[in-house]
Amino acid sequence: MSGTRPAWEEKPTPVGLAGKGAALTVMALVVLIPLWSVLVTSLSSRKTINDAGGMVMVPKGIDASAYVTIFSGGIVTRALWVSTLVTVAGTLVSLTLTVLAAYGLSRPGSVGHRTLLFFFLLTFLIYPGLVPSYLVVTGVGLKDSLWALILPSAISVFNLVVVRGFFQGLPNELLDSARIDGAGEFRILWRIVLPLSRPVVAVVGLFYAVGYWNVWFSALLYIDSNDKFPIQRILQSMILQGQSPSFSGQSVGSLPPTQAIKMAVVVVTVAPIVLIYPFIQRHFVKGVIVGAIKG
Amino acid sequence: MSTEAPVAAGTSDELARPPGPTQPPGKRRRPRMPLRARLRRDWPLLLMTAPAALLLLVFHYLPTLGNVVAFQDYNPYAGDGPLSAFLASEWIGFGNFNTLFSDPAFWDALWNTLTITAFQLVFYFPLPIGLAILLNSVISGKLRAFIQTVVYLPHFFSWVLVVTFFVQMLGGAGLLAQELRQAGVEPPNIMTNPDTFIVLVTAESVWKDAGWGMIVFLAALAMIDPNLYEQSAVDGAGRWRRLWHVTLPGLRPVIVLLLILRLGDALSVGFEQFLLQRDAVGRDAAEVLDTFVYYQSITTGNFGFGAAAGLFKAAVGLVLILVANRVAHMIGERGLISRQ
């Protein structure tokens, strides 16, 4: 963006500048302080946590024993595997089906195009509701299956519309010449369209991945076995319901402080989001999302 | 899924053209290949679309039809599975709706929902607009990018995480309470106080989504012609008058669009957020329509009754969004579903 003030604009007043600076600082700190405090507490020793009174803001040495505990087997490790599995499998399923359907719907004039498009877009206006959805998901036999966290929400029509819009913006001549050379639609999609659509596929994939990592309510509804709980479900029961998790092979006395364990679970739940966030962020400001909004 | 971008405005053009008699002229005159030839040409496209369409059919449209259990005394134990239970259950017409409308707990939940929606329209809705205007006025590109990066982040957190952060910061054993106690002040009850719950949930929504909400307005601000600012400045308009006469009119279509979407969703105030905190705060303050449906159906097995409540909510929501769209047309805006 432009780095200088236009000539016609009046100089900012000191009060205005100070107010603006204060507002921006508050905006940033409101997000950063909780993240910082949770991270530091998770890495603190029992003494540091007790001295601070619960949440630590100023680190005094690093004690990673809470992480050793949650990664050494037990319900948290298990839940992290489940969430990883659901995220990877779910993203693959969602992305594949979304890209295929987006391409299938990208050509006005093809057989059934209008009807199919209407069929997809109508889902924006009509919501099925909790009870019938529950009955259908359990009725098709997905109760206590990890597929219940994936299949019912596998297609985001919004994402589909974004991808479709991108496909439609690709130069037609390219596709036509491939068609003249005798390439089939699957081949065109795989060899020509997808390589040109990496940014949009990346963003949509990351959006799906975040959604799957954050799955909580579907797990509450459909998953009964503890060993299939995703991490959000564990976080909820530990922090919001105050249940202590079980850790294999360690007696309670030798465990790191509960507070550090809890905060470590928060950190491992946040970490994947924070780690992939820069990749999403790189694309979404300019490009995909804004383009979608403009229609 | 909560990670979607805040608006589905990109679809407005398509929604504007349902199949049927509104085809643009000229389209019909185009010579058409016979269906058989078109099928031979297009079958791969249909094949590609089929899996996604099938999923929507099973997990979206089938449940939509399944709303008819609202007219049943649905008994989950009447059969081996939901389908046979459905076939074996008794039809009772509007019985569930009669029970629903005479249930004071339903009216309490509806009242809570509408109060929270109204409160958030006043104290949440304008915030992303203000923040976007503020951020847009920052000249340093680096600073802007930094702030954007930071404030968009919580949008990608789950509600479990958001509530967790609030508990750790503002709860009875949280950072604020701990600092206040050390300063000799008795900390206020924030996380479990029913009287201030409406403020708490709004603060949580602001923390999670107000930053992300800016993205649409920043895009709209970037599309305002800079010459308009220069000309009005030359004509003697100060910064507040430029805000009023250039910036806000430029944002108006987006504001109206988001307002329509919000009004159409007036009966939804965020399901997971309330479900997570209902036990801590109590249902007098935290029961909203969605949690009412959940507790009346899934946890008690009273599915017909819960479906009736859900159907009521969906029907009102559909009416609301169509009315809001009509009003937008009347005041001369393009709205969500534009006419040709």
Please describe the structure with a list of short key phrases separated by commas or semicolons.
heterodimer; A: about 300 residues; mainly alpha; 2 domains; 14 helices; globular; disordered C terminus; B: about 350 residues; MetI-like fold; 16 helices; about 65% helix; about 0% strand
Structural overview:
The complex is a heterodimer of chains A (295) and B (340). Chain A is built from 14 helices and no strands. The longest helix of chain A has 30 residues, at 75-104. Chain A folds into 2 domains: 14-52, no CATH class; 73-294, MetI-like (MetI-like fold, Orthogonal Bundle), CATH 1.10.3720. In chain A, helix 4 packs across helix 7, helix 7 crosses helix 14 (288-294) and helix 10 (198-213) runs antiparallel to helix 13. Chain A is an all-alpha fold. Mean pLDDT of chain A is 88; it is low at 287-295. Chain B is built from 16 helices and 2 strands. Chain B is mainly α and 340 residues long. Chain B has a domain at 95-330: Orthogonal Bundle (MetI-like fold), CATH 1.10.3720. In chain B, helix 10 crosses helix 12, helix 12 packs antiparallel against helix 16 and helix 15 packs antiparallel against helix 16 (303-330). Chain B has a two-stranded antiparallel sheet with strand order 1-2. The two termini of chain B are 31 Å apart. Chains A and B meet through helix 1, helix 4, helix 5, helix 6 and helix 7 of A and helix 1, helix 2, helix 3, helix 6 and helix 7 of B. Chain B: It is found in: Cell membrane. Chain B: Keywords: Cell membrane, Membrane, Transmembrane, Transmembrane helix, Transport.
